[in-house]
């Protein structure tokens, strides 16, 4: 990815061998008589020679143990570069002050270091301890600066030994300076000025592109502004200003900003590339590879939130692979003649050249100076400027393309006008022929319309048969329970009756015996105890009562079925709406079971002149829909509730059926009564249930309305007059409404 934060870490992959050689012990034993002499108070002194190094893999050794370790000399010139390591690295050197200025500053100009611990030991035995880093609030620093600055006091013509322990999850490159307070302050002021110019340039580019984006209403500018912001934020993080100004009291954010900010910058870069170069249109197959990179970025973020070091490696790897892949994608788009890709390639190449210079500086192949220290900032500003020009050029490109398309459209319209004139000459000769064709077509359409009406009629009958199937299943289930009880009681009842008949025979034998009455009575009592006559009588009564209740329940179900079906539905009848609702509930009882709570609020309402069977079908459809809505919401668990209410007002009977199911979306409310419209999956519904409900209510000169809220349920409210118009008028209207339904 074209991500500043990632390029700034790209050196991790290029210099591990150099870092390893810098840290390995190659026999440069530290000599105590080699000291760093500070003899010019007017300039800072770069510390690189006379420095020894020791790596603490545990990060837990106390300073007394560290002092006893063997330190190896750093063998290179230039900036100290230790590569990427999880260890705490200790630097040891002795400073002798040959100037008159005793208040000195030790500057570690690397803001990405996680922790820096300073132990300063004077020749007289005094020890100074100071700890800085991202794990401590910024306000605890003695010097308010983005880099690590340690005040040290070394008297004139004396020396002090310094132990500096550093640890980082990033590349450990250590520009280490010592100087007077004024010199170090001037150096930091220069850095603040240069970064202020950089931040100002970034802000100007953001405002400029924001103005252009608002003027042209081009979405690419929004992504580009976000990209510029993340680029600037990345540089602010690496220079220490993000921690200094944005989250000075958040060590957690400071320690993980090297993961989070590059992640955001990478996503912003990818979003800008996809919109600017239209990769999904220009290279649809290669665009999928960019999406894979995005997924890998999320993986790197997840890892980095728990292990910053490993997360940084993943992000750096993805950036390294991503930069090569994006260069390939951009080049493929350029080959297709897409002009913005040329600007993008130029801008990216220049920026990548700055990255190469940055890596060469890390290799100490080019000197570390004021220019190379800010090479990435310079490269990012140049890149941002060129991409802004590319966006502006694309506007001109679109304008020319629009003018060319308009000219092409004009030529096409002129050609079309010529063709129309020629075709008009042939049109008259074709009119008669087309008229005959239209007549034949009309005849075919009439036949197709007739077939369509027949098919629609079959569909309506299919919906009725589906309801009949559900009705049959419900009745079978309801009748099965009492019948099972009856059949289950017959066998024990038959056994008890046989035992009772046998008892009668025994009683008869005892009665005809030629023995005294007292003996007969005693023998009878003994036999009664043997057969437990009292229990036998009680069991027979219970079995007869159970059979009676089963037969009664079966009769009630048959009665409800007779009320529900109303075979006389072709004639207007006075019917009890409450009774029709109750019979429908009996039919659906096996469906509701115990997991749906049905609440009834029946008022005393007059009988309604209607087709009872058709109205019962309406109730069946609405209650079935309520069941499915509740089942979809509660997934077969308890919690469903259906409330049925009836009342009478202004010569109208109101029937309300309300559920707490999934409800219906607002945009679908006007479509639910249309024939063949359904929200169910394919194969689970015909879409005719509510259409039949609407037509049936309309046949009764009533109306039906819906009150619903998605996720909270539905309420259907039906209004039916108690008295219908005369038969002839009603039948004529029924025929017309049926034809209208089929015509839909």
From TrEMBL:
Membrane-spanning segments: 193-214, 221-247, 259-277, 289-306, 312-330, 342-360, 372-392
Keyword ATP-binding included in the entry's annotation: no
UniProt entry keywords in alphabetical sequence: Membrane, Phosphoprotein, Transmembrane, Transmembrane helix
Gene3D superfamilies in alphabetical order: 1.10.287.130, 2.60.40.2380, Histidine kinase-like ATPase, C-terminal domain (3.30.565.10)
Highest taxon listed in the record's lineage: Bacteria
E.C. no: 2.7.13.3
Enzyme class: transferase
Catalytic reaction equation(s): ATP + protein L-histidine = ADP + protein N-phospho-L-histidine
Domain annotation Histidine kinase: ranges: 474-724
Descriptive protein name: histidine kinase
Native organism taxonomy: Bacteria, Pseudomonadati, Bacteroidota, Sphingobacteriia, Sphingobacteriales
């Amino acid at each position: 990815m074209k991500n500043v934060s990632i390029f700034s870490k790209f050196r991790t992959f290029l210099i591990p061998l150099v870092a390893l050689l810098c840290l390995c012990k190659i026999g440069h034993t530290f000599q105590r008589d080699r000291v760093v002499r500070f003899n010019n108070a007017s300039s800072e002194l770069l510390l690189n020679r006379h420095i020894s190094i020791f790596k603490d893999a545990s990060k837990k050794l106390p300073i007394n143990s560290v002092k006893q370790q063997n330190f190896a000399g750093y063998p290179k010139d230039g900036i100290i570069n230790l590569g990427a390591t999880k260890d705490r690295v200790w630097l040891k050197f002795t400073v002798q002050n040959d100037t008159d200025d005793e208040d000195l500053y030790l500057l570690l100009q690397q803001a990405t270091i996680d922790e820096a611990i300073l132990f300063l030991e004077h020749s007289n035995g005094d020890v100074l301890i100071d700890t800085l880093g991202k794990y401590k609030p910024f306000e605890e620093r003695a010097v308010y600066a983005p880099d690590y600055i340690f005040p040290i006091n070394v008297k004139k013509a004396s020396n002090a030994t310094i132990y500096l322990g550093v640890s980082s999850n990033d590349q450990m490159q250590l520009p280490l300076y010592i100087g007077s307070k004024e010199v170090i302050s001037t150096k930091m002021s220069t850095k603040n000025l240069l970064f202020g110019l950089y931040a100002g340039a970034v802000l100007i580019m953001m405002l400029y592109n924001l103005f252009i984006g608002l003027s042209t209403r081009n979405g690419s500018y929004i992504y580009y502004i976000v990209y510029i912001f993340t680029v600037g934020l990345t540089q602010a993080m690496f220079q220490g200003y993000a921690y200094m100004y944005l989250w000075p009291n958040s060590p957690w954010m400071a320690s993980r900003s090297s993961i989070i900010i590059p992640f955001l910058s990478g996503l912003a870069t990818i979003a800008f590339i996809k919109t600017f170069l239209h990769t999904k249109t220009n290279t649809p197959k290669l665009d999928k590879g960019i999406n894979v990179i995005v997924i890998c970025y999320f993986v790197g973020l997840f890892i980095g939130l728990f292990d910053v070091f490993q997360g940084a490696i993943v992000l750096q790897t993805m950036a390294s692979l991503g930069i090569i892949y994006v260069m390939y994608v951009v080049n493929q788009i350029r080959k297709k003649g897409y002009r913005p890709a040329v600007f993008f390639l130029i801008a990216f190449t220049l920026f990548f050249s700055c990255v190469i210079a940055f890596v060469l500086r890390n290799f100490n192949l080019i000197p570390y100076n004021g220019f190379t220290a800010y090479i990435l900032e310079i490269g990012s500003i140049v890149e941002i400027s060129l991409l802004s020009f590319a966006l502006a050029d694309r506007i001109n490109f679109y304008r020319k393309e629009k003018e060319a398309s308009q000219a092409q459209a004009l030529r096409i319209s002129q050609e079309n006008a010529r063709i129309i004139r020629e075709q008009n000459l042939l049109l008259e000769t074709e009119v008669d022929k087309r008229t005959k064709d239209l007549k034949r077509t009309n005849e075919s359409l009439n036949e197709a319309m007739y077939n369509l009406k027949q098919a629609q009629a079959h569909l309506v009958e299919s919906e009725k048969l589906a309801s009949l199937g559900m009705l049959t299943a419900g009745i079978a289930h309801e009748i099965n329970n009492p019948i099972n009880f009856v059949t289950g009681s017959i066998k024990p009842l038959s056994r008890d009756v046989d035992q009772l008949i046998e008892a009668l025979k025994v009683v008869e034998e005892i009665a005809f015996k030629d023995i005294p009455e007292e003996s007969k009575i005693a023998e009878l009592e003994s036999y009664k105890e043997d057969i437990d006559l009292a229990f036998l009588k009680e069991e027979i009564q219970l079995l007869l009562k159970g059979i009676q209740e089963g037969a009664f329940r079966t009769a009630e179900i048959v009665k409800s079925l007779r009320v529900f079906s109303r075979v006389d539905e072709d004639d207007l009848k006075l019917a009890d709406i409450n009774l029709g609702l109750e019979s429908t509930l009996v039919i659906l009882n096996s469906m509701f079971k115990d997991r749906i709570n049905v609440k009834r609020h029946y008022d005393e309402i007059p009988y309604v002149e209607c087709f009872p069977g058709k109205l019962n079908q309406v109730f069946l459809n609405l209650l079935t829909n309520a069941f499915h809505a509740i089942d979809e919401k509660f997934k077969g668990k308890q919690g469903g509730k259906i409330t049925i209410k009836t009342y009478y007002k202004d010569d109208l009977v109101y029937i309300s059926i309300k559920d707490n199911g999934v409800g219906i979306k607002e945009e679908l409310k006007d479509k639910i009564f249309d024939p063949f419209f359904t929200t169910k999956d394919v194969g689970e519904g015909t879409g005719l249930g509510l259409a039949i409900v609407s037509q049936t209510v309309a046949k009764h000169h009533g109306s039906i309305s819906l009150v619903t809220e998605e996720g909270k349920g539905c309420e259907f409210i039906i209004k039916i007059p108690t008295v219908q118009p005369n038969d002839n008028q009603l039948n004529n209207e029924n025929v017309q409404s049926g034809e209208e339904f089929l015509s839909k």
